[in-house]
User: Fold this.
Amino acid sequence: MQEEINVNKLSVSYYGKQVISNVSFSFESGKLIGIIGPNGAGKSTMMKAMLGLIPRDSGEVMIENQPLQTIQKKIAYVPQRSNIDWDFPIIVKDTVLLGTFPKLGLFRRPKKRDRNWAIECLTKVGMEKYAKNQIGELSGGQQQRVFLARALAQKAEYFFLDEPFVGIDVASEEVIIRILKDLRNEGKTVFVVHHDLSKVKNYFDDLVLINKKIISSGPVEYVFQPKLMQKAYNYSLSMMESIGGEV
Assistant:
């Protein structure tokens, strides 16, 4: 399979200070890819810059040999929960229904089949019985499941999730990673900003290891190595052993 996701020399600055510098990597489609690195490494910034959500100083992102903006409807993005206004008055099923809007086109309203599809996506994440609840009434894990259902409703080919496992219960994390693996098995490509190194080997096929710049990228067994992790995190070898790194 040819490489279908290419990031080339991506750099981003905030207020004149460079946050990520000259980031480049390539991956085949149909992979579950973890973006890891220490706090402040630029993981979320890199994801947002890839998606064109924040300005870039330089660099380009090509998917299917096309600029990202030309295949925008094939992309679903789940932001960090801390960036969402949970007081906004909207019920769960309508939140998921928003995922159908990009493919509806201008001035078209959702039809019965779109509403049925939204409920089907809620069912996939085990949240159908909460369909009429206000989104703000849910726990953190439940909210994260609903936003994954919204992403599923988009029928996307490429999924980008920013810290989906932060502040959620174990049951929700298990549901979410199962669905992400199912998407991968269906040939979808999934990028996940992730912080828990103990789960890396079990969750991902490939990794992007970043600390302002790319430390390494590629298969988990290649990237998740003591010398590379030490370089990114300044961890000792004994700490690497405790999180499952091979010494």
The beta strands are 3-14, 17-28, 32-36, 58-63, 66-67, 75-78, 158-162, 189-193, 206-211, 213-219.
